Amino acid sequence: MTGPESQDIEQATTSIAPAQPDDKTRRYDRQLRIWAASGQAALEASRILVLSSSATSTSILKNLVLPGIGHFSILDSAVTTPADAGNNFFLNARQSIGKPRAQEAVPLLRELNESVQGEAVLKDVKDILTADQGKHWLAGFSIIIAHNLDKSTLEDLSSLLWSDPNGPPLVAVRSAGFLAEFHIQYHEHCVSQSHSETAPSLRITRPFPALLEWARSLDLQNMDPTTHGHIPFVVILVRLVDEWRKSHDGNLPKTAAEKKEFKSNILALKIKPDEENFDEAEAQAWRVWSEPAIPGDVQALFSLPPLPSTPHRHATFHALLDTLAEFTKDPSGPGTLPLSSTLPDMKSDTESYVRLQNLYRQWAEVEKNKFKELFAKKYPELAKTANPEEVDTFVKNSHHLRVQRGKQWGAFDRDREAIVNSLMMAPRETATHLALSALTNLLSRKAEITDHSLKAEIVSLVGEGVDLPEELDAAVGEVARAPTADLPNTAAFLGGLVAQEAIKMITEQYVPLNGYCVVDLVDSWTGVVA
């Protein structure tokens, strides 16, 4: 080819290449695949307060700065010691000794991500807690993270934040040598994007009109063998359920014999022994008798008792949840949650699969619009101001909604019955938690930290006559060995764990831990004390 129409390879490939992603998309490409643009926007709007600039605190911040939080503040009046310079990678080694620790850490943390703002606040948290202006300042953060804060100060901070349902969550972190734990304090946490791996209902026993029409229209006896071997298993099951109900007074298979007969009916439709779609339909037959109209976890949310004061940020979620309960009770509806357009992979040809996908998408849109009409009817004012994207996301993920109720930090240690039950259910995890709690109490009294003093404090926590697990000796030994050591190994591991849970709280995606997450890097395990 010559003349003006000719192109070299570079010109040709450039002309057909799609638009290049911007710098932000390239920088955050991997995490955008995890929590999408909505999660990234929530991160970028967040304000994080970290109390202390210890090795663990800066490691946590590292894992929050890299994914792109909006702003962080380090509240710490401490001066860098030689020990800090030796274990904290976000200090300028010996050059930082004698200088404000937080002030030294901020520039190095900001180097990780130029789009993140950060500041050092060289004050004592006790002074902040005693001033009205300071209390107001604390309320302006998205989440507050405290590492190895002394007990009395942590109790005051916990009580202040717990007194306001709209206050920020508190992450209390405690570490000693190779042992650590953290607890997230919050009244309520609502999740519409839990990213559950459980597949939503395919509505096989309650098919929508277009799906039922397709299933009934199949001429299985005279169908082309190639087409017959590519009918999606969903359509096969809908057809078999429809026929079964006609001959069984509208009932589904119930007994083991009936279920076996139903499966046999599926395989009897095969015209060739290698038709994998019918084998798949037989393997998926459990959906006919085991798939509930409404998942149990979601059904339980409909009767969830309200909190004395619901956080403002969850008002829309609860209104949508109430609307969802009404949607399932609507006599003219399917008696289920809104249809999900998500389909699993299945044995089929492209034409049949795309047809099925389009049917699900179209009917999911119909039911979403019906849900929105019901929402506008029940909550007319809120429906006007609600973010349409939030409503769409709620409906799309209605099969995997979660509402978690949290506890105030320290409430577990004041409940001896709960401790005793936890010792029976999770002895290793509870023993480590008790060792760290005993350490916190002893440090608050400036008492000597020994094996004997730690065990005596643990007995005071659980009460006399309670059998303590053998794992307690190892936990007590490690805490006594290194009661105030902030080891780089533990700091790095905790940094990832705590930041991960903080991101779940900020983005309101995925399901965060509820209770104490306990870490033992001596034997390399983690666990949860609920």
Write the layout of secondary structure elements.
Elements: H1 9-16, H2 23-27, H3 29-44, E1 47-51, H4 55-65, E2 71-75, H5 82-87, H6 101-110, E3 117-121, H7 125-129, H8 132-138, E4 143-147, H9 151-162, E5 170-176, E6 179-185, E7 188-191, H10 209-217, H11 225-228, H12 233-247, H13 256-268, H14 276-283, H15 286-290, H16 296-302, H17 315-329, H18 350-378, H19 380-385, H20 388-396, E8 402-405, H21 416-425, H22 427-444, H23 451-462, H24 471-481, H25 488-507, E9 516-520, E10 525-529
Parallel strand pairs: 1-2, 1-4, 2-3, 4-5
Antiparallel strand pairs: 5-6, 6-9, 7-8, 9-10
Question: How would you describe this structure to a colleague?
Answer:
By secondary structure, the chain is α/β, with parallel strands linked by helices. It has helices at residues 9-16, 23-27, 29-44, 55-65, 82-87, 101-110, 125-129, 132-138, 151-162, 209-217, 225-228, 233-247, 256-268, 276-283, 286-290, 296-302, 315-329, 350-378, 380-385, 388-396, 416-425, 427-444, 451-462, 471-481, 488-507; strands at 47-51, 71-75, 117-121, 143-147, 170-176, 179-185, 188-191, 402-405, 516-520, 525-529. The protein starts with 8 loop residues before the first helix and ends with a strand. Residues 1-6 and 12-17 have low confidence and may be disordered.
**Strand portion, in percent?**
5-15%
C-alpha termini separation = 73 Å
Shape: elongated
The percent range for helix content is: 40-55%
Structural class: alpha/beta
- Describe the strand arrangement of the main beta sheet, using strand numbers: 3-2-1-4-5-6-9-10
Q: Are there runs of 5+ residues with pLDDT below 50, and where? A: 1-6, 12-17
Give the oligomer, counting copies of the same chain as homo and different chains as hetero. Answer: single chain
Number of H/I helices: 25
